[in-house]
Here is the input.
Amino acid sequence: MLMRCVLALFVLLAWLAPARAEAEVIVRIDLSDQLMTVYVDNRLMHEWPVSTARRGYRTPVGTYRPIRLERYWRSRKYDNAPMPWSVFFHGGYAIHGTTAIKQLGRPASHGCVRLHPDNARTLFETIVENGKANTIIAVVR
Here is the structure.
């Protein structure tokens, strides 16, 4: 009887416990290599080409946390350009999907970090799943 009570208590506690603890997400954007690497709990999960600021513009270097997430956004500054799966990290700067897929891997943007739309969605969903507070975005030269 005592064993059944202990087992029932264990099952109840397992059921009440969260199914999955949030993980730490590190998004590293290398401006020199035009490459993004995504780590979840220190495990490399993704490596994608990006486009960052072209000559005459800048992508801010530093360590940030996501400020705002927008599934679909349009640039108010640059001709209403589509910015799907946007992760804003510093003022108006965001990581987002792009239609200029052929330019990925070289500087081409006004300062945002452009990704293939499928990869932008994966990153967006990873951040949503694990939380903005658990995500670090590091932009390095």
Observations:
- The two ends are 65 Å apart (CA to CA).
- Helices lie at 2-16, 117-130.
